[in-house]
Each structure stands twice: as C-alpha cells, then as structure tokens.
C-alpha cells in the first residue's frame, strides 16, 4: 500500500491558502497516493518495474481516479491512500497510450471531494498553478507554467501542446495540476532538465487535461478510446546530430521482427524524408491503423537499407487488467 512518506516540499515553495481564490486544502484532499504491482511476466515489467508508486486525483464522487498511465499499465494490484492515511483497493479501468492518461476505480468509499475537470487551453507561460501530490500542502508545489509546446517521447509518443511547469515536483507521476479556479488542468508525467543536463534546472512535463473529456466515457466504459489503434513499431528512438537514431527495440515487437536494428538512422517513412522525432512518429501514424505495413528507409553502417515493418497494436502486447 502507498504511503506519503516522511519527505516534504521545502516550505518556501509550498502553496499557501491565502494566495489562492479557492479552498486550497479541499482541492488538495482530492489527490491520493497510488501504488501498483505488475506481474513479472508483463511486457512493461522490465522497463517500468513491477512495483510502481505515484499519485492520482479523484475526478468523480463514485471513486473514479485519474492518473498517468505508466503507473497502472498491466497492474493486477492497485491501492489508493488518502491524505489522512486510509487505504482502499482499486482496479485499473482504462489506459490511453496516445495521451498517456489512465483511470482507476476505487473499490471502497474514498470519502473525498472530487476535483472538477477544468480547461487547459487557456493556460499561458507565467500563469500560477499548484502541482499537487498526495498528502496536502507539504507534498505540493506552488508553481507556474513556463511553457507549452510540442513534446516527443522516445517510446512513440507525441503531445501537440505539453505543459511545462516549474519548480519541479520530486514525485511528479500522477500529480494534479490545479489552475486558478481550483480545478484540474493537467496530470504530471515526467521530469526533464531545462537548459541541458549540466547546469539546467529540473522541470515537470504535464499532460493537458483537455485531452481527457473526448475519451473519458470510452475509457470508463471499455478501457480504451473508441477509435482505431495507431500503428506501433516497438522501438525507442532519439534525435541525434546524424538524424533519428534507433536506440532500443521492444522484445518481439514489430521493429525487431522486421529487422530494424539498434544504431539504424531513420531517413524516410514510405519514401518521405523525416524531420524531427515527432515528424517520424506522425508519418508512421498517418499510414493507417495498427497492422498497416510501414516502409522505412534507414542508414545502417553507411549503407541505405529499405525495410517493410508490419505494425502492431501496442495494447495487444500488454496484460489486460483483471475484470471486476
């Protein structure tokens, strides 16, 4: 079961009730600690671990909790712990790979107020917000939006307008970004370095909440959005001075099966040159739905190689959550 631990955010960056026009403590009480266990044979066990911990936020009074998807992906055990130390079991409801958001249903009464879903579209650099972890003010950061821009993750993931927040929360996964009206405007996902690895400052990437309403009903009812799955290659790629480099392959994934290799430089998708990492992924997704053939041109040890990969559905490689 999750616990809040003995750590605390420094008092100088904790949010103070008088600085906000809403009931800060009530809003913070909607954030719960979340811990999960994943079977060792799970597809993501090696990369994400078999024991995961973070945060979630109650978005409906019936116990529906929103979090970041990697905490709950393939989990067969879920515990939710409230700010006053009560622990309740939960189960995974759904996960959306495109947004990175996931849902958990509490299997007992959390007896907490739900945090209202707001809008993230109007957030601008300089706007004040609170990045809230489970456990109240001592586990939350008085922060501000420092940027909103495209983000591409090496695991075949793109956000058109990710939110970037500072100061950084040290336990960012599933934190609630609370806006000026006291509503939920984003979910914490990653910690990054602004200004490079040496001498930079840590910042958080937050998934904007506007990605949730179009898929919420589908996620709650059927566990995934009601749309064709994107083609997935099962590769990890990064931008280098030489181009888009393959730095890893998922075991038994489409890329490995199609003879893509670590170190290959991706030059084109279906004959069209690729630009940055986001452009590479979008060109793959534009070819059709999961199962479509993906023609790649790569540079391998100085020579051009043409490949044809049969894409897959990422979720078919994952263990489905137990039924409740």
Describe this structure in words.
- The structure is a single chain.
- The protein is mainly beta and 324 residues long.
- The chain has 3 domains: 112 residues, Trypsin-like serine proteases (Thrombin, subunit H), CATH 2.40.10; 83 residues, Thrombin, subunit H, CATH 2.40.10; 83 residues, PDZ domain (Pdz3 Domain), CATH 2.30.42.
- The protein has 5 helices and 18 strands.
- The strands form 3 sheets. It has a 6-stranded antiparallel barrel.
- A hairpin with a 3-residue loop joins strand 8 and strand 9.
- The protein is globular.
- The chain starts with 23 loop residues before the first helix and ends in a 14-residue tail after the last strand.
- The relative contact order is 0.14.
- The mean pLDDT is 95.
- Parts with pLDDT < 50 across at least 5 consecutive residues: none
As for the number of domains, it is: 3
Shape: globular
Q: Could you tell me how far the N terminus lies from the C terminus, measured between alpha carbons in angstroms?
A: 20 Å
Number of strands: 18
CATH class of the largest domain: Mainly Beta
CATH topology heading of the largest domain: Thrombin, subunit H
CATH H-level name of the largest domain... which superfamily? Answer: Trypsin-like serine proteases
Percent helix range: under 10%
Strands ordered across the widest β-sheet: 1-2-3-6-5-4
- Whole-number average pLDDT? 95
Structural class: mainly beta
Q: What is the radius of gyration computed over CA atoms, rounded to a whole number of angstroms?
A: 20 Å
The secondary-structure element order is HEHEEEEEEEEEEEHEEHEEHEE
- Could you say what the CATH architecture of the largest domain is? Beta Barrel
Largest sheet: 6 strands, antiparallel, barrel
